[in-house]
Amino acid sequence: MSFQVFGIPVTRGVAIGRAVLVAASRIDVAHYFVEPEQVAKETERCLRGFEAVAAELEQLREALPGDAPPELDALLEVHLMLVRDPLFVGGTCHWIEERLYNAEWALSAQLEVLSRQFDDMEDDYLRERKSDLEQVVSRILEALVRGQAAQSFTPPPPRDFAGQDPLLLIAADVSPADLMNFRHGVFQGFVTDIGGRTSHTAIVARSMGIPAVVGTREASRLIRQDDWVIIDGDQGVVIVDPSPTVRQEYEFRQRQAEVERERLSRLRDKPAVSLDGQRVAMLANIELPSDAAAALAAGAEGVGLFRTEFLFMNRGGQLPTEEEQYLAYREAIEALQGRPLTIRSIDVGADKPLERAHADGRHETQLNPALGLRAIRWSLSEPGMFRQQLRAVARAAAHGPVKLLLPMVSHWQQVEQTRELLRAALHQLGTPELQLPLGVMIEIPAAAVSLRWLLPQVDFVSIGTNDLIQYTLAIDRADEEVAHLYDPWHPAVLGLVAQVIEQARAAGKEVSICGEMAGDPAFTAVLLGMGLRAYSMHPAQIAEVKQQILRLDASRAAAQVATLLQSPDPRQAARDTRLLP
Ligand code: PEP
Ligand code: MG
Questions:
Q1: Which of the listed residues 104, 235, 354, 474 has the most CB atoms within 10 Å of its CB?
Q2: Is this structure's pTM higher than 0.85?
Q3: How confident is the model at residue 254 (pLDDT cuts 50, 70, 90)?
Q4: Is the Cβ–Cβ distance between 313 and 176 less than 8 Å?
């Protein structure tokens, strides 16, 4: 029966395909596809996990003291029965063989199938055995994680899914690290239960250019493996098991969107100049060096934000060496063919943890990760790691124009400390005279408010509106429960953004925006009116924002913005003055 699930739209467009569920497990495990030739090995690894747990349970049973309550023995027997259940073992192997899921994923997929069967049982006793099954699965996952600890994980190579039904990823949550494993065109859309519009998972989805809806709360519970699903990334709606008429309608919209993309792509080589002659730089945000080529293909004039933390993920806990980093930065620089590359120093923490949860399901016990030791704070507390990154960036700068950008700066002393480390690194490298422009992200209200003390320390600033909104409004950007309050139109947010642009320009320092607001056509006119002349966004958004700029008069927008900034309801003011398209 057809039904709909509602959430928060992340990437525009329509995707139609079959649901692939990534079930939430107590243990955060990797989800990836194995190569067909690895199926036998992966199945064997999976079966070893089952056997290890069966042996563990046998041992536990044998070691039970004579006076142990009989229920304990009965419980272990139930667990043993489950771990040897042909439906469970065979079903899990089936996911590996038929779908090429890795063992952990196969196990959680089978858990989900069996859990539903338990849910449907009339008998209370049997229904309650579901929690036993969950415990057994946790044990097997732990055994698999333990057995794998020595291997380092490398993302799978791109897979060719040509000729198959398009696949859509449906999950309670996907970590940005997992999503990176799926970047190579495996999924044509995705839906999650949790998350907000600017959570990092959403950002990675946007960079993949696939329609996505997050914060649906229950999609992963309601949708089943293999269901036909339509993701409407414009409206934030997910349609499950659509009727033929609805499906035809959406197929028509897909074709229309293709025509529109084709039309916009003709703007690729056209410079972004407003009607009154203001030149605007269109820059790209990238996550991996290989994205640089795609950025150029989309018409980017350089990279305004290279989120280097993604180089540090999916490495089984090993950080990349200086040489690996140098090669990665150099690859991006060379792909840009002389256009500038802004490398942001590692920004981990909050919803972008470096490591997965521990094998026993614990997460790092930071009290409040978004306010904790993250980004520049972490870098400065790990000077050995930070020095390596600085050296790699400095070495790469020999190959093309590079700037260094520091995330989450709140105190000017953090810039001073970084300069000190940078000076030492340049000295060690024998290039003390190298001029590496150093900038800060304005993401913390304190940095915006005290900008005049930061500006003399830096060569440029870039406004990270994703975090600036989060910290100004005290709204967790990844929490769907408060997503309705995450409001870029809030007068406090617009006031801070306008103030930063104005002060930076007055001080003769370059200012750009690299948060999601820069790529949102709803804000193009407002930001132009505030004086912004450098927008950095996902390559896929460049053409649409450029089209807006080509149709705008910057001085007129400036006058309208002055009125809007006096309004308690800037969104309404933008509508009234037609600043909002
Ligand atoms: C931001 O906060 O706006 C930003 C661009 O950085 P990130 O999204 O990576 O936190
Ligand atoms: Mg940020």
A1: 104
A2: no
A3: very high
A4: yes
